Each structure stands twice: as structure tokens, then as C-alpha cells.
Input
Amino acid sequence: MVTNKTKICFSSHMIVLVLIFISKILVNASENTGGSDIPVVDLSKSKYEVAQNIRNVAKDFGFFYLINHNISQVLLSKVFNQSMSFFNLSELQKLSVKQRDGYFGYTPFEEEVLDKERQYNRGDTKEGYYVRGPFANKERRPLQWETLWIDEKIIPEFKATTLEYYYRLKQLSLRLTSLIALSLNLEENFFDNKFQNPLDVLRLLHYTSEPSNISSGIFGAGQHTDYGMFTILAVLDHVSGLQIYPPRLNRWIDVPRLENAFIVNLGDQLQRWTNDYYHSTLHRVVIANTSVQRYSVAFFWEPDFECLVSCVPTICNEQELPKYEPVMHGEHLLFKFSQGHTQLDLKTEL
Ligand SMILES: O=C(O)CCC(=O)C(=O)O
Output
């Protein structure tokens, strides 16, 4: 027989269970999303846990925060200080290292147009500076460009600081690459032979405070996907702007800065390697009305020029056929690069 006492006991038990359930959801939400909609990957966990974590987030989001990455905040603030010193130089000084065919360097305000369809009369309201270290392979190959460095007398330690950061991010990218291989049930070294002379590059970015206007086609950065395997982004301060369009949500969402975390997004070639299983997610920068300007640093992790990208064996088989023809990474990169940077004449690179 069910007495009133048992009923009370049962319902209070239910309430406790519901409360535990809700608190678990809340804890998980803050653990997994860094307080925003974007998931977190924690590099301090075991490599198998990290790999599983990457697998879970790569499909639905293609974007995640990376924490416990071991890149010091001191180095990061030095890089941002150098970046601000550079972008504060006069236009004439910056133009002295302007990027041209065969050399990485400064890209002026509005030089890049990432989304020709929507940005019909204005380029990105940002300026940039591409940096990379010397190539291990000295023979002149396509896109093996040296960097035009600003004189050390103008900004002391600019080259040393940005290169130190560049090399640290290369190491981090190699680690992330083997974790991605594990996440796909591949040998950890599966991608090693595809990154013998990688075309990776670092880019300092500075957005002006001009507010974006979506209907007039004015964007900090027009919508695009990234071209290589993945990108590691650092953002200074809490100047919002980055928005992504995850396949699962079908709407634009903000990616706010998370303290001590990088923002990682997967690129076109990883989507191709995984037959669309992992996602290269559309993103853009929309500058709100703000008195503080946005500075970011993006590290683009790109395979070798000759690397033929085709579906990996743990995904494609007799049941699942490749959706794409194999593509040579350098050709894909040149095509995308020439679309965005129309002032360059990249025909000589082929
Ligand atoms: O600056 C940002 O937040 C994003 C940069 C970006 O999307 C890119 O350079 O591909």
C-alpha cells in the first residue's frame, strides 16, 4: 500500500535526483564550453582522452578552445606588444615591407577580400603581416617565400619574438596533428610524411574600429573557411568579433576570447582527409561598435606543397567511397590565396 509518507519520500527523492541532474548539466556546460557554445579540448588529459575529445567536437563544431597548451602567456604578450608596435608604424614604414610575389610581409588595410560575393565594394577592414621562418629545404619551390622583416632598429626584437612564437606553434601543431591522427584511429605518425616542408605561416592581424555592416558588405574579415589542416588563433583582450557557422546549429554564433586558451579551427584539407566527417567551419569577423581595437595572431598549419590529400583509410573503404578527387595541397592553397589577395600574381608559382 502507498502511504502519504512514502509518497512524500518518493517525491523528495525525485526532486534531489532532478537537482543533481541539473547541477551536472550546468557543471558540464561550463567545463565543456568555456562558458560559451564552443567546446574545450584540454591538452593536460591523456592522449587517448584528448583524441576522443577532438573526435567529438570536430564534426559538429570544427572549432574548439585549446587549454593547457604550454605556450607561455609571457611570450604571447610579447608577441602582441610587437604586433601593436608594428601596426602603429607610419604607413610608409609598413609599406616598406609590403608583401609581394615571392615574399611574405605586410598586407595593407582592405587588401584582402575573403568573400567577394558579399564584400562587393570593400575589402576586410583589417591589416596583416605574414611571418614565417626560413624553409629547411633551400631550393626555390612554389610558395617557399622568405619574410620581408622590419628593421630591428625600428622595432627591436620583432623578428626574434615572432619567430620564437612561430616555432613554438609549429611544435604544438605537430603534437595536435598526431592527436588528430589518433582521433581518426590512425597511427600517430600517419601525417608525418605530409609535413616534411610544410607551408605553415603566422599572421599578425589588426582590425580598425570601424563597425562592420553586414547588409552593406563591410566585414572585419569576410566569411571563409581556412585552407590547410587547422589554424591556431590567439586573441588579445576581450574585443569580440569572431563568429562561426557550425553545421549543427545553422546560425552564426560568437566565439568570445577564453583566458589562456587558443581558438583552434579545422581547415579544408582535414575535411577532405576525413570525407566531410570533420568540419572546416565557415567563420568571419564582425566588428561591433567599440573603442578598443581587435588584435589577433593566426597560425595556419599547412601540409607540403606536393602533399596529395585524399580520404584516410580508416574512413574510406568499399562501403564509404571518397567524395573528393585527391588534390595537391599547394594547388588548393595557391587558388585560395590568389582569390583573397588579388594584387599578387601567383601564376609564376606553378
Ligand atoms: O582574427 C580573427 O579572429 C580571425 C582571423 C581569421 O579568420 C583568419 O585569418 O582566417
About this structure: The two ends are 85 Å apart (CA to CA).
